[in-house]
Amino acid sequence: MPKTLRVLYSAFRMAMLHWIADPQWVIPNVIAPFIYTFVALTLFKEARGPFGLYAVLGGGMMGMWGNTLYSSGFAIEFEKWQGTLEEVLAAPSNLLHVIAGKSISNALFGLTNMVAILLIASLVFRVPLGVANPILFAFSIILTLLSVSALGLIFASAFVLTRSAQVFTNGLETPIYIISGSMFPIALLPFWVHPVSYILGPTWGIEAIRIIAGQESVSLTFWLNIGVMLFITLAYVAIAAFLFKKVETKSRRDGTLVQA
Amino acid sequence: MVAALELSSQLGQASSDKAIVAEHLCKVFNVTKGVLRRTKNQVMAVKDVSFEIGYGELFGLVGPNGAGKTTTIKMLTTMLIPTSGTATVLGYDIQKDVTKIRERIGIVLGGERGLYTRVNAIDNMRYFADLYGVPVNIQKKRIRELLQFMGLWDRARDRVETYSKGMKQRLHLARGLVNDPQLIFMDEPTIGLDPEIAKETRTMIKELVEKGKTILLTTHYMFEADELCKRVAIIRNGEIVALDTPSGLKKYVMDTSVVEVEGFGITENEVARFKEVSEVLAVSADLSENKQVLKIQTPKGSEIISEVQEILKNSRIYDIKIKEPTLEDAYLRLVEGSAK
Q1: Selection from B95, B184, B177 nearest residue B139 by Cα
Q2: pTM of the model
Q3: In this structure, how many other beta carbons lie within 10 angstroms of the beta carbon of residue A54?
Protein backbone atom coordinates (compact mmCIF):
# COMPACT_ATOMS: atom_id res chain seq x y z
CA MET A 1 0.00 0.00 0.00
CA PRO A 2 1.47 3.43 -0.88
CA LYS A 3 2.68 5.40 2.14
CA THR A 4 -0.02 8.11 1.84
CA LEU A 5 -2.81 5.53 1.70
CA ARG A 6 -1.25 3.72 4.64
CA VAL A 7 -1.31 6.93 6.73
CA LEU A 8 -4.91 7.66 5.65
CA TYR A 9 -5.96 4.14 6.57
CA SER A 10 -4.11 4.18 9.88
CA ALA A 11 -5.61 7.54 10.92
CA PHE A 12 -9.05 6.28 9.82
CA ARG A 13 -8.56 3.09 11.83
CA MET A 14 -7.39 4.94 14.94
CA ALA A 15 -10.43 7.27 14.78
CA MET A 16 -12.74 4.27 14.35
CA LEU A 17 -11.15 2.54 17.35
CA HIS A 18 -11.88 5.65 19.41
CA TRP A 19 -15.46 5.85 18.14
CA ILE A 20 -15.96 2.25 19.23
CA ALA A 21 -14.18 2.76 22.56
CA ASP A 22 -16.26 5.82 23.39
CA PRO A 23 -20.00 5.17 23.04
CA GLN A 24 -20.97 8.83 23.54
CA TRP A 25 -21.34 9.02 19.72
CA VAL A 26 -24.79 7.51 20.24
CA ILE A 27 -26.05 10.95 21.28
CA PRO A 28 -25.12 12.90 18.09
CA ASN A 29 -25.69 9.95 15.78
CA VAL A 30 -28.96 8.45 16.96
CA ILE A 31 -30.75 10.63 19.49
CA ALA A 32 -30.11 14.00 17.79
CA PRO A 33 -31.28 12.76 14.34
CA PHE A 34 -34.48 11.54 15.96
CA ILE A 35 -35.13 15.04 17.26
CA TYR A 36 -34.21 16.65 13.90
CA THR A 37 -36.61 14.37 12.05
CA PHE A 38 -39.42 14.96 14.50
CA VAL A 39 -39.03 18.76 14.24
CA ALA A 40 -38.74 18.68 10.44
CA LEU A 41 -41.74 16.41 9.91
CA THR A 42 -43.85 18.49 12.29
CA LEU A 43 -42.93 21.66 10.38
CA PHE A 44 -43.74 20.15 6.96
CA LYS A 45 -46.75 18.10 8.08
CA GLU A 46 -49.32 20.16 6.21
CA ALA A 47 -47.22 20.92 3.15
CA ARG A 48 -47.83 19.32 -0.22
CA GLY A 49 -45.29 17.96 -2.67
CA PRO A 50 -42.01 16.18 -1.90
CA PHE A 51 -41.57 17.89 1.45
CA GLY A 52 -41.51 14.62 3.37
CA LEU A 53 -38.35 13.72 1.47
CA TYR A 54 -36.94 17.23 2.00
CA ALA A 55 -37.61 16.95 5.68
CA VAL A 56 -36.02 13.56 6.03
CA LEU A 57 -32.98 14.26 3.84
CA GLY A 58 -32.64 17.71 5.37
CA GLY A 59 -32.65 16.27 8.87
CA GLY A 60 -30.08 13.71 7.76
CA MET A 61 -27.87 16.34 6.18
CA MET A 62 -28.11 18.52 9.26
CA GLY A 63 -26.96 15.74 11.55
CA MET A 64 -24.31 14.60 9.10
CA TRP A 65 -22.90 18.06 8.48
CA GLY A 66 -22.90 18.95 12.17
CA ASN A 67 -21.20 15.69 13.03
CA THR A 68 -18.54 15.99 10.34
CA LEU A 69 -17.83 19.65 10.91
CA TYR A 70 -17.54 19.17 14.64
CA SER A 71 -15.46 16.01 14.39
CA SER A 72 -13.08 17.26 11.70
CA GLY A 73 -12.40 20.41 13.60
CA PHE A 74 -12.18 18.41 16.78
CA ALA A 75 -9.51 16.13 15.29
CA ILE A 76 -6.74 18.57 16.27
CA GLU A 77 -8.31 19.36 19.63
CA PHE A 78 -8.57 15.64 20.35
CA GLU A 79 -4.83 15.22 19.79
CA LYS A 80 -4.19 18.18 22.12
CA TRP A 81 -6.37 16.65 24.82
CA GLN A 82 -4.62 13.31 24.53
CA GLY A 83 -1.24 15.07 24.54
CA THR A 84 -0.38 13.27 21.30
CA LEU A 85 -0.32 16.29 18.98
CA GLU A 86 3.42 16.81 19.36
CA GLU A 87 4.15 13.16 18.61
CA VAL A 88 1.89 13.24 15.54
CA LEU A 89 3.45 16.48 14.30
CA ALA A 90 6.96 15.18 14.87
CA ALA A 91 6.28 12.19 12.61
CA PRO A 92 7.36 12.42 8.95
CA SER A 93 3.77 12.01 7.67
CA ASN A 94 1.82 14.90 6.23
CA LEU A 95 -0.59 16.23 8.87
CA LEU A 96 -3.23 16.71 6.16
CA HIS A 97 -3.23 12.94 5.48
CA VAL A 98 -3.64 12.19 9.18
CA ILE A 99 -6.55 14.59 9.57
CA ALA A 100 -8.08 13.46 6.26
CA GLY A 101 -8.08 9.84 7.50
CA LYS A 102 -9.87 10.96 10.64
CA SER A 103 -12.30 13.09 8.62
CA ILE A 104 -13.25 10.12 6.44
CA SER A 105 -13.89 8.12 9.59
CA ASN A 106 -16.09 10.96 10.87
CA ALA A 107 -17.90 11.03 7.55
CA LEU A 108 -18.62 7.33 7.87
CA PHE A 109 -20.12 7.97 11.26
CA GLY A 110 -22.06 10.79 9.65
CA LEU A 111 -23.50 8.12 7.39
CA THR A 112 -24.89 6.30 10.42
CA ASN A 113 -26.60 9.59 11.17
CA MET A 114 -28.30 9.64 7.77
CA VAL A 115 -29.24 5.96 8.02
CA ALA A 116 -30.70 6.56 11.49
CA ILE A 117 -32.80 9.43 10.10
CA LEU A 118 -34.13 7.31 7.23
CA LEU A 119 -34.99 4.43 9.55
CA ILE A 120 -36.62 6.69 12.16
CA ALA A 121 -38.68 8.52 9.50
CA SER A 122 -39.76 5.31 7.89
CA LEU A 123 -40.40 3.10 10.92
CA VAL A 124 -41.45 5.61 13.60
CA PHE A 125 -43.11 8.41 11.60
CA ARG A 126 -44.32 6.20 8.72
CA VAL A 127 -43.05 8.59 6.05
CA PRO A 128 -43.17 6.89 2.62
CA LEU A 129 -39.57 6.81 1.39
CA GLY A 130 -39.80 4.99 -1.88
CA VAL A 131 -36.35 5.45 -3.38
CA ALA A 132 -36.47 4.84 -7.13
CA ASN A 133 -32.79 3.96 -7.62
CA PRO A 134 -31.32 2.72 -4.31
CA ILE A 135 -27.79 2.05 -5.65
CA LEU A 136 -27.27 5.53 -7.11
CA PHE A 137 -29.06 6.97 -4.09
CA ALA A 138 -26.45 5.36 -1.78
CA PHE A 139 -23.66 6.38 -4.20
CA SER A 140 -24.80 10.01 -4.09
CA ILE A 141 -24.99 9.99 -0.31
CA ILE A 142 -21.44 8.61 0.01
CA LEU A 143 -20.03 11.22 -2.41
CA THR A 144 -21.90 13.96 -0.57
CA LEU A 145 -20.39 12.69 2.67
CA LEU A 146 -16.90 12.90 1.16
CA SER A 147 -17.65 16.43 -0.01
CA VAL A 148 -18.85 17.40 3.47
CA SER A 149 -15.73 15.77 4.86
CA ALA A 150 -13.46 17.75 2.51
CA LEU A 151 -15.21 20.95 3.56
CA GLY A 152 -14.60 19.96 7.18
CA LEU A 153 -10.91 19.53 6.31
CA ILE A 154 -10.65 23.20 5.35
CA PHE A 155 -12.04 24.18 8.73
CA ALA A 156 -9.71 21.71 10.46
CA SER A 157 -6.71 23.71 9.22
CA ALA A 158 -7.93 26.66 11.33
CA PHE A 159 -7.59 24.48 14.43
CA VAL A 160 -3.89 24.02 13.74
CA LEU A 161 -3.50 27.70 14.55
CA THR A 162 -5.93 28.33 17.37
CA ARG A 163 -8.45 26.61 19.56
CA SER A 164 -10.73 29.64 19.07
CA ALA A 165 -11.53 28.06 15.72
CA GLN A 166 -14.24 26.12 17.57
CA VAL A 167 -16.28 29.33 17.86
CA PHE A 168 -15.83 29.94 14.13
CA THR A 169 -16.97 26.48 13.06
CA ASN A 170 -19.84 26.37 15.55
CA GLY A 171 -21.12 29.60 14.02
CA LEU A 172 -20.96 28.12 10.53
CA GLU A 173 -22.96 24.99 11.19
CA THR A 174 -26.46 26.38 10.67
CA PRO A 175 -25.71 28.93 7.88
CA ILE A 176 -24.05 26.27 5.69
CA TYR A 177 -26.88 23.86 6.39
CA ILE A 178 -29.41 26.44 5.20
CA ILE A 179 -27.39 27.87 2.31
CA SER A 180 -26.68 24.40 0.87
CA GLY A 181 -30.45 23.89 0.56
CA SER A 182 -30.52 20.88 2.82
CA MET A 183 -33.93 21.53 4.33
CA PHE A 184 -35.63 23.48 1.52
CA PRO A 185 -34.73 24.38 -2.09
CA ILE A 186 -32.19 27.16 -2.53
CA ALA A 187 -34.68 28.80 -4.94
CA LEU A 188 -36.50 29.95 -1.80
CA LEU A 189 -33.40 31.79 -0.58
CA PRO A 190 -32.59 35.41 -1.59
CA PHE A 191 -30.79 35.53 -4.93
CA TRP A 192 -27.64 37.08 -3.45
CA VAL A 193 -27.13 33.92 -1.38
CA HIS A 194 -27.11 31.70 -4.49
CA PRO A 195 -23.42 32.23 -5.42
CA VAL A 196 -22.46 31.05 -1.93
CA SER A 197 -24.76 28.03 -2.33
CA TYR A 198 -23.10 27.10 -5.61
CA ILE A 199 -19.61 26.94 -4.18
CA LEU A 200 -20.74 24.48 -1.51
CA GLY A 201 -20.28 20.85 -2.58
CA PRO A 202 -23.20 19.60 -0.42
CA THR A 203 -25.60 21.90 -2.38
CA TRP A 204 -24.97 19.81 -5.52
CA GLY A 205 -24.85 16.58 -3.57
CA ILE A 206 -28.21 17.02 -1.86
CA GLU A 207 -29.76 17.98 -5.21
CA ALA A 208 -28.36 14.81 -6.81
CA ILE A 209 -29.74 12.75 -3.90
CA ARG A 210 -33.19 14.25 -4.36
CA ILE A 211 -33.15 13.68 -8.11
CA ILE A 212 -32.17 10.05 -7.81
CA ALA A 213 -34.60 9.40 -4.96
CA GLY A 214 -37.51 10.46 -7.15
CA GLN A 215 -36.70 8.98 -10.56
CA GLU A 216 -35.63 5.55 -11.72
CA SER A 217 -33.93 6.58 -14.96
CA VAL A 218 -30.68 8.47 -14.62
CA SER A 219 -30.84 11.97 -16.05
CA LEU A 220 -28.05 14.21 -17.28
CA THR A 221 -28.96 16.68 -14.54
CA PHE A 222 -28.11 14.03 -11.93
CA TRP A 223 -24.64 13.43 -13.39
CA LEU A 224 -24.12 17.17 -13.82
CA ASN A 225 -24.76 17.66 -10.10
CA ILE A 226 -22.44 14.77 -9.23
CA GLY A 227 -19.71 16.12 -11.54
CA VAL A 228 -19.87 19.66 -10.13
CA MET A 229 -19.81 18.28 -6.59
CA LEU A 230 -16.71 16.18 -7.36
CA PHE A 231 -14.98 19.16 -8.92
CA ILE A 232 -15.75 21.34 -5.89
CA THR A 233 -14.65 18.54 -3.53
CA LEU A 234 -11.30 18.27 -5.28
CA ALA A 235 -10.96 22.04 -5.04
CA TYR A 236 -11.65 21.78 -1.27
CA VAL A 237 -8.89 19.16 -0.92
CA ALA A 238 -6.45 21.39 -2.85
CA ILE A 239 -7.40 24.41 -0.70
CA ALA A 240 -7.05 22.33 2.48
CA ALA A 241 -3.60 21.07 1.37
CA PHE A 242 -2.51 24.66 0.71
CA LEU A 243 -3.89 25.90 4.05
CA PHE A 244 -2.34 23.03 6.03
CA LYS A 245 1.05 23.75 4.49
CA LYS A 246 0.71 27.45 5.35
CA VAL A 247 -0.52 27.00 8.91
CA GLU A 248 2.04 24.29 9.65
CA THR A 249 4.88 26.55 8.57
CA LYS A 250 3.40 29.44 10.54
CA SER A 251 2.97 27.31 13.65
CA ARG A 252 6.57 26.03 13.36
CA ARG A 253 7.79 29.61 13.06
CA ASP A 254 5.62 31.13 15.81
CA GLY A 255 5.42 28.12 18.10
CA THR A 256 1.65 28.55 18.25
CA LEU A 257 0.87 24.87 17.91
CA VAL A 258 3.07 23.69 20.72
CA GLN A 259 2.01 26.56 22.99
CA ALA A 260 -1.70 26.18 22.30
CA MET B 1 15.18 -6.76 30.87
CA VAL B 2 12.81 -9.25 29.37
CA ALA B 3 14.18 -9.77 25.91
CA ALA B 4 17.08 -8.80 23.73
CA LEU B 5 16.34 -6.08 21.24
CA GLU B 6 17.63 -6.42 17.73
CA LEU B 7 17.30 -3.28 15.70
CA SER B 8 19.03 -2.57 12.47
CA SER B 9 18.43 0.73 10.81
CA GLN B 10 16.81 0.62 7.37
CA LEU B 11 17.53 4.22 6.49
CA GLY B 12 20.77 5.72 5.26
CA GLN B 13 22.30 8.87 6.65
CA ALA B 14 23.96 11.94 5.24
CA SER B 15 27.72 12.12 5.54
CA SER B 16 28.60 13.74 8.83
CA ASP B 17 30.84 12.68 11.67
CA LYS B 18 28.54 14.32 14.21
CA ALA B 19 24.98 13.33 15.05
CA ILE B 20 24.07 16.92 15.93
CA VAL B 21 25.82 20.17 15.11
CA ALA B 22 24.05 23.27 16.45
CA GLU B 23 25.54 26.66 15.62
CA HIS B 24 24.34 29.91 17.18
CA LEU B 25 20.71 28.79 17.46
CA CYS B 26 18.31 31.52 18.57
CA LYS B 27 14.56 31.45 19.04
CA VAL B 28 12.44 34.50 19.68
CA PHE B 29 8.73 34.20 20.45
CA ASN B 30 6.28 37.05 19.99
CA VAL B 31 3.98 37.26 22.96
CA THR B 32 0.73 39.24 22.74
CA LYS B 33 -1.07 40.36 25.88
CA GLY B 34 -4.42 42.00 26.54
CA VAL B 35 -7.66 42.14 24.61
CA LEU B 36 -8.53 45.79 24.14
CA ARG B 37 -5.03 47.19 24.59
CA ARG B 38 -2.90 44.59 22.89
CA THR B 39 0.77 44.77 23.68
CA LYS B 40 3.39 42.77 21.86
CA ASN B 41 6.56 41.59 23.51
CA GLN B 42 9.42 39.49 22.32
CA VAL B 43 10.78 36.69 24.46
CA MET B 44 14.15 35.23 23.58
CA ALA B 45 13.78 31.59 24.60
CA VAL B 46 17.12 30.41 23.19
CA LYS B 47 20.18 32.65 22.75
CA ASP B 48 23.15 31.70 20.63
CA VAL B 49 23.21 28.02 21.54
CA SER B 50 26.02 25.98 19.96
CA PHE B 51 27.10 22.40 20.66
CA GLU B 52 27.98 19.16 18.92
CA ILE B 53 27.02 15.59 19.74
CA GLY B 54 28.96 12.59 18.43
CA TYR B 55 27.44 9.32 17.25
CA GLY B 56 26.75 6.88 20.08
CA GLU B 57 26.96 9.64 22.70
CA LEU B 58 24.47 10.23 25.49
CA PHE B 59 24.39 14.00 25.84
CA GLY B 60 22.56 15.77 28.65
CA LEU B 61 20.87 19.15 28.45
CA VAL B 62 19.99 20.33 31.94
CA GLY B 63 18.52 23.52 33.29
CA PRO B 64 15.64 24.94 35.32
CA ASN B 65 12.09 25.29 33.98
CA GLY B 66 11.91 27.86 31.19
CA ALA B 67 15.66 27.68 30.55
CA GLY B 68 15.21 26.77 26.88
CA LYS B 69 15.76 22.99 26.93
CA THR B 70 12.49 22.05 25.28
CA THR B 71 12.68 24.90 22.75
CA THR B 72 16.16 23.69 21.76
CA ILE B 73 14.89 20.12 21.35
CA LYS B 74 11.90 21.33 19.33
CA MET B 75 14.17 23.19 16.93
CA LEU B 76 16.42 20.15 16.52
CA THR B 77 13.42 17.87 15.94
CA THR B 78 12.14 20.33 13.25
CA MET B 79 9.01 21.22 15.22
CA LEU B 80 10.13 24.83 15.52
CA ILE B 81 11.97 26.97 12.98
CA PRO B 82 14.90 28.85 14.56
CA THR B 83 14.85 32.63 14.38
CA SER B 84 18.55 32.52 13.51
CA GLY B 85 21.42 30.08 13.52
CA THR B 86 21.79 26.70 11.87
CA ALA B 87 21.85 23.06 12.87
CA THR B 88 22.30 19.69 11.27
CA VAL B 89 20.86 16.49 12.65
CA LEU B 90 22.40 13.25 11.34
CA GLY B 91 23.97 15.42 8.65
CA TYR B 92 20.65 16.94 7.51
CA ASP B 93 19.70 20.60 7.75
CA ILE B 94 16.88 21.21 10.25
CA GLN B 95 15.19 23.73 7.94
CA LYS B 96 15.64 22.09 4.55
CA ASP B 97 15.53 18.35 5.28
CA VAL B 98 12.57 18.18 7.64
CA THR B 99 11.15 14.83 6.45
CA LYS B 100 14.57 13.11 6.27
CA ILE B 101 15.30 14.12 9.86
CA ARG B 102 11.86 13.10 11.14
CA GLU B 103 12.18 9.67 9.55
CA ARG B 104 15.47 9.05 11.34
CA ILE B 105 14.87 10.36 14.84
CA GLY B 106 12.77 9.22 17.78
CA ILE B 107 11.11 11.43 20.38
CA VAL B 108 10.31 10.34 23.91
CA LEU B 109 8.45 12.80 26.08
CA GLY B 110 7.98 12.40 29.80
CA GLY B 111 4.72 12.18 31.71
CA GLU B 112 1.59 10.13 31.40
CA ARG B 113 0.13 11.97 28.42
CA GLY B 114 1.10 11.50 24.79
CA LEU B 115 -0.50 8.08 24.37
CA TYR B 116 -3.89 6.98 23.06
CA THR B 117 -5.18 5.64 26.34
CA ARG B 118 -8.49 4.29 25.00
CA VAL B 119 -6.72 1.77 22.77
CA ASN B 120 -4.13 -0.91 23.50
CA ALA B 121 -0.33 -0.76 23.26
CA ILE B 122 -0.18 -2.64 19.94
CA ASP B 123 -2.61 -0.18 18.31
CA ASN B 124 -0.58 2.76 19.65
CA MET B 125 2.61 1.24 18.24
CA ARG B 126 1.03 0.29 14.93
CA TYR B 127 -0.36 3.76 14.40
CA PHE B 128 2.99 5.44 14.89
CA ALA B 129 4.75 2.77 12.83
CA ASP B 130 2.46 3.77 9.95
CA LEU B 131 3.03 7.49 10.54
CA TYR B 132 6.78 6.82 10.40
CA GLY B 133 6.43 4.77 7.23
CA VAL B 134 7.72 1.53 8.77
CA PRO B 135 7.09 -1.19 6.17
CA VAL B 136 4.20 -3.48 7.16
CA ASN B 137 6.36 -6.62 6.86
CA ILE B 138 8.73 -5.23 9.52
CA GLN B 139 6.10 -3.70 11.84
CA LYS B 140 4.72 -6.84 13.43
CA LYS B 141 8.12 -8.28 14.44
CA ARG B 142 9.47 -4.93 15.62
CA ILE B 143 6.42 -4.05 17.71
CA ARG B 144 6.57 -7.44 19.40
CA GLU B 145 10.33 -7.10 20.04
CA LEU B 146 9.98 -3.60 21.47
CA LEU B 147 7.07 -4.46 23.73
CA GLN B 148 8.93 -7.55 24.94
CA PHE B 149 12.05 -5.45 25.52
CA MET B 150 10.00 -3.03 27.62
CA GLY B 151 8.29 -5.87 29.51
CA LEU B 152 4.85 -4.92 28.16
CA TRP B 153 4.07 -7.85 25.88
CA ASP B 154 1.87 -9.66 28.39
CA ARG B 155 -0.35 -6.58 28.66
CA ALA B 156 -0.01 -5.49 25.03
CA ARG B 157 -3.69 -6.04 24.23
CA ASP B 158 -5.00 -4.16 27.28
CA ARG B 159 -6.13 -0.56 27.01
CA VAL B 160 -3.34 1.87 27.93
CA GLU B 161 -5.65 3.60 30.43
CA THR B 162 -5.27 0.52 32.65
CA TYR B 163 -1.45 0.85 32.73
CA SER B 164 0.60 2.14 35.65
CA LYS B 165 2.78 5.25 35.26
CA GLY B 166 5.85 3.12 34.77
CA MET B 167 4.20 1.02 32.07
CA LYS B 168 3.09 4.16 30.25
CA GLN B 169 6.63 5.51 30.36
CA ARG B 170 7.97 2.23 28.99
CA LEU B 171 5.39 2.44 26.21
CA HIS B 172 6.61 5.99 25.46
CA LEU B 173 10.12 4.56 25.11
CA ALA B 174 8.91 1.70 22.89
CA ARG B 175 6.93 4.12 20.72
CA GLY B 176 10.00 6.35 20.36
CA LEU B 177 11.90 3.38 18.96
CA VAL B 178 9.26 2.14 16.53
CA ASN B 179 11.04 3.62 13.51
CA ASP B 180 14.41 2.29 14.73
CA PRO B 181 15.82 5.83 15.06
CA GLN B 182 19.54 6.53 14.91
CA LEU B 183 19.10 9.44 17.28
CA ILE B 184 16.61 9.68 20.16
CA PHE B 185 15.49 12.88 21.87
CA MET B 186 14.29 12.25 25.41
CA ASP B 187 12.61 15.14 27.17
CA GLU B 188 12.57 14.42 30.91
CA PRO B 189 11.80 10.71 30.51
CA THR B 190 11.82 9.98 34.25
CA ILE B 191 9.73 12.92 35.42
CA GLY B 192 7.04 11.91 37.89
CA LEU B 193 8.20 8.29 38.12
CA ASP B 194 8.82 6.60 41.45
CA PRO B 195 12.51 5.85 42.19
CA GLU B 196 12.34 2.17 41.24
CA ILE B 197 10.71 2.79 37.84
CA ALA B 198 12.99 5.76 37.17
CA LYS B 199 15.97 3.48 37.83
CA GLU B 200 14.51 0.88 35.46
CA THR B 201 14.07 3.57 32.80
CA ARG B 202 17.69 4.70 33.24
CA THR B 203 18.83 1.10 32.80
CA MET B 204 16.92 0.92 29.51
CA ILE B 205 18.43 4.20 28.35
CA LYS B 206 21.93 2.81 29.08
CA GLU B 207 21.13 -0.33 27.10
CA LEU B 208 20.04 1.75 24.12
CA VAL B 209 23.38 3.58 24.15
CA GLU B 210 25.17 0.22 24.35
CA LYS B 211 23.27 -0.74 21.20
CA GLY B 212 24.77 2.23 19.42
CA LYS B 213 21.95 4.76 19.68
CA THR B 214 22.72 8.45 20.10
CA ILE B 215 20.62 10.14 22.77
CA LEU B 216 19.98 13.76 23.68
CA LEU B 217 18.43 13.75 27.13
CA THR B 218 16.95 16.61 29.10
CA THR B 219 16.49 16.18 32.81
CA HIS B 220 15.98 18.05 36.04
CA TYR B 221 17.84 15.43 38.01
CA MET B 222 21.58 15.99 38.26
CA PHE B 223 22.34 12.52 39.61
CA GLU B 224 20.63 11.16 36.49
CA ALA B 225 22.78 13.28 34.21
CA ASP B 226 25.84 12.26 36.26
CA GLU B 227 24.97 8.58 35.98
CA LEU B 228 24.01 8.52 32.29
CA CYS B 229 25.63 11.29 30.32
CA LYS B 230 29.02 11.40 28.70
CA ARG B 231 28.78 15.19 28.48
CA VAL B 232 26.36 17.70 29.96
CA ALA B 233 25.37 21.19 28.84
CA ILE B 234 23.85 23.47 31.46
CA ILE B 235 21.38 25.94 30.01
CA ARG B 236 20.13 29.01 31.82
CA ASN B 237 17.90 31.80 30.45
CA GLY B 238 18.31 30.34 26.97
CA GLU B 239 22.12 30.28 27.06
CA ILE B 240 24.54 27.44 27.58
CA VAL B 241 26.54 28.46 30.64
CA ALA B 242 28.72 25.33 30.82
CA LEU B 243 29.40 22.26 28.69
CA ASP B 244 31.68 19.52 29.91
CA THR B 245 31.83 15.95 31.18
CA PRO B 246 30.15 15.43 34.57
CA SER B 247 33.58 15.20 36.24
CA GLY B 248 34.69 18.33 34.36
CA LEU B 249 31.65 20.22 35.62
CA LYS B 250 32.34 19.14 39.18
CA LYS B 251 35.70 20.91 38.90
CA TYR B 252 33.77 24.20 38.81
CA VAL B 253 33.04 23.64 42.49
CA MET B 254 36.26 21.90 43.56
CA ASP B 255 37.24 25.01 45.50
CA THR B 256 34.10 24.82 47.62
CA SER B 257 32.47 22.70 50.27
CA VAL B 258 28.79 22.15 50.81
CA VAL B 259 27.39 22.88 54.24
CA GLU B 260 24.23 20.79 54.47
CA VAL B 261 21.79 21.78 57.19
CA GLU B 262 18.85 19.63 58.25
CA GLY B 263 16.26 21.47 60.24
CA PHE B 264 12.69 22.61 60.76
CA GLY B 265 11.00 26.01 60.63
CA ILE B 266 13.47 27.47 58.14
CA THR B 267 11.87 30.36 56.25
CA GLU B 268 12.35 31.82 52.80
CA ASN B 269 13.65 35.03 54.43
CA GLU B 270 16.38 33.11 56.18
CA VAL B 271 17.37 31.43 52.91
CA ALA B 272 17.51 34.86 51.28
CA ARG B 273 19.80 36.12 54.06
CA PHE B 274 22.34 33.40 53.22
CA LYS B 275 22.47 34.68 49.65
CA GLU B 276 23.65 38.03 51.00
CA VAL B 277 26.63 36.52 52.83
CA SER B 278 29.76 37.25 50.78
CA GLU B 279 31.38 33.82 51.34
CA VAL B 280 28.26 31.99 50.13
CA LEU B 281 28.42 31.13 46.43
CA ALA B 282 25.07 29.36 46.05
CA VAL B 283 22.17 28.26 48.21
CA SER B 284 19.46 25.71 47.59
CA ALA B 285 16.67 24.81 49.96
CA ASP B 286 13.98 22.17 50.12
CA LEU B 287 11.54 23.65 52.61
CA SER B 288 8.53 21.57 51.66
CA GLU B 289 9.06 18.53 53.89
CA ASN B 290 9.00 18.16 57.66
CA LYS B 291 12.75 17.69 57.58
CA GLN B 292 13.98 20.72 55.64
CA VAL B 293 17.34 20.62 53.86
CA LEU B 294 19.49 23.64 53.15
CA LYS B 295 22.63 23.37 51.03
CA ILE B 296 25.14 26.20 51.17
CA GLN B 297 28.14 26.31 48.86
CA THR B 298 31.10 28.15 50.27
CA PRO B 299 34.90 28.08 50.04
CA LYS B 300 35.01 28.59 53.81
CA GLY B 301 33.61 25.17 54.77
CA SER B 302 33.17 24.71 58.50
CA GLU B 303 34.28 28.31 59.15
CA ILE B 304 30.80 29.62 58.41
CA ILE B 305 28.96 27.27 60.79
CA SER B 306 28.67 29.93 63.48
CA GLU B 307 27.15 32.31 60.93
CA VAL B 308 24.70 29.56 59.88
CA GLN B 309 23.65 29.09 63.49
CA GLU B 310 23.20 32.82 63.92
CA ILE B 311 20.93 33.17 60.86
CA LEU B 312 18.93 30.09 61.82
CA LYS B 313 18.64 30.95 65.50
CA ASN B 314 14.83 30.99 65.31
CA SER B 315 14.66 27.60 63.58
CA ARG B 316 15.39 24.13 64.80
CA ILE B 317 18.64 22.60 63.51
CA TYR B 318 18.87 18.80 63.56
CA ASP B 319 22.23 18.31 61.89
CA ILE B 320 25.02 20.14 60.02
CA LYS B 321 27.36 18.27 57.67
CA ILE B 322 30.26 19.38 55.51
CA LYS B 323 30.18 17.54 52.16
CA GLU B 324 32.16 17.28 48.94
CA PRO B 325 30.34 19.00 46.06
CA THR B 326 28.35 16.92 43.56
CA LEU B 327 27.22 17.61 39.98
CA GLU B 328 24.05 19.07 41.45
CA ASP B 329 26.13 21.58 43.39
CA ALA B 330 28.01 22.48 40.22
CA TYR B 331 24.67 22.95 38.49
CA LEU B 332 23.35 25.16 41.30
CA ARG B 333 26.49 27.24 41.27
CA LEU B 334 26.28 27.71 37.50
CA VAL B 335 22.54 28.31 37.35
CA GLU B 336 21.87 30.23 40.52
CA GLY B 337 25.18 31.41 41.86
CA SER B 338 27.03 32.61 38.81
CA ALA B 339 26.01 36.18 39.52
CA LYS B 340 28.41 36.01 42.44
Answers
A1: B177
A2: 0.81
A3: 20
